[in-house]
Amino acid sequence: MTLRTAVILTLGSITAATTAILTLLAGGSGAQAVLAAGVAFGGAVPALHRLIAAESPEADRG
Asked: Where is the Major facilitator superfamily (MFS) profile domain positioned along the sequence (predicted)?
């Protein structure tokens, strides 16, 4: 696993956990919190994948 992948998955997990906690605090059930967390993770990971650029060949020159 690359560092980039680890960062993306970690940030996605933090997003999912935060969403679950906020859902519970808003009065949602455990099932709703799990579903909301899954949706948040599923949305965050592709967005972070696009946002955090892969290493470019130009970065090695220097």
From this structure: 1-62
Instruction: Please report, to the nearest 10 degrees, the dihedral formed by the alpha carbons of residues 42, 44, 45, 50 taken in order.
Output: 130
Domain that includes residue 39, residue range: 3-60
Percent of the chain with pLDDT over 90: 82
Packing angle between helix 30-51 and helix 3-25, nearest 10 degrees?
150
Taking the C-alpha atoms of residue 15 and residue 43, their distance in angstroms, rounded to an integer, is 10
Which is it for the CA torsion 14, 20, 23, 24, positive or negative?
Answer: negative
> How many domains does the chain contain in total?
1
* The pLDDT value given to residue 41: 98
Contact 23, 32 (CB under 8 A): yes
